[in-house]
Amino acid sequence: MPQKDPCQKQACAIQKCLQANKYMESMCEEVIRNMRRCCDVHRGNSTCCSGFKDSKPTENKNET
To answer: What is the pLDDT of residue 7?
Structure first.
């Protein structure tokens, strides 16, 4: 039996969030951060991460 992708849950959460928020990425920042964290850990083992960019946005935009 094939092994489940370790980041599939996070990838699905992004799709669900984007659909629920009319594809406004700013409304889904937390689920996108969760996907980045998962990909940081499982990049070599996750096909879901293959299309996810390596570049990381700043975690806190409001810092001075």
So the answer is: 95
